[in-house]
Amino acid sequence: MAGKGDGEGEGNVLKLENQILVIKYVILFTNIILAMIGLSLLVLCIWLRVEPGIADFLDKLDGTDFYIGLYVLIVCAILVMIISVIGCVSALQESGLALLVYIGTQVLGFIFGLAGAAVLLDNSARDSHFQPKVRESIRKLIINAHHEPSRQALAMIQEGIGCCGADGSKDYLSLKQPLPNECRDSVTGNPFFHGCVDELTWFFEQKCAWVAGLAMTICFFYVINIVLATILRAALEKEEEQSQTYRK
Which of 98, 102, 155, 182 counts the most CB atoms within 10 A of its CB? Predict the structure, then answer.
């Protein structure tokens, strides 16, 4: 009977070791994917920050709060790559303490990723703080259209996006200002149907969709890694207990 028990104990230890090995390789694989996604996120965020067309629009519209979300996501992208290295090392070391540190970094990265995506969308998407700011800025430019800087800013926005006024050509009528040529379609001569609030929102949403999507994907992987690291840590503790029992 003792020999049978010893065989079963050894078999359980080997089975647990195989399970630990599988979890380790899954963690390594997810961290490699995370590192690549993090690099892609970093490149996209830097591109959005330095892209001249976006910078020109935001400067004219006093919408530089848009950059706050990008800065948070840049930090998040750098954290992703650092955390991925920590994850690989933690899994290979099979250290409970290292895995605990890794779980903590995953939680931190999750918070940064979620916060960055939320701030970015709140300054670029529909039904966010972005639209009232754009509306107020466009109306101020229309009111001050007799000044050359305001007129040039309006011309750049309306010609570049293909829009008229904040919410349409009626803004010029309500503010008692003449309708400029930049508000008209060069082919038909009719005023653009959509206002600049809607057009700019669609413009920035298209630019930010991939960035926000990558950030949320990273957060999803963080949740997976937290679960895997927790399971791995528990499995290592169980392996240690079984090994001590088997040696006795």
Answer: 102
Q: How many CB atoms lie within 10 A of CB 46?
A: 13
Measured between alpha carbons, how far is 244 from 248 in angstroms, rounded to an integer? 6
CA distances from 121 to 19, 127, 129, 132, 246 (A): 41, 10, 9, 14, 56
pLDDT band at 3 (very low <50, low <70, confident <90, very high): very low
Unique residue bearing structure tokens 């392996």: 239
Q: Is 89 left (phi over 0), alpha (psi -120 to 50) or beta?
A: alpha
Helix (H, G, I), strand (E, B) or coil at 119: helix
Q: What is the pLDDT of residues 117-176, one digit of tens each?
A: 888 888 777 777 888 888 898 999 889 888 888 888 888 888 888 888 889 888 888 888
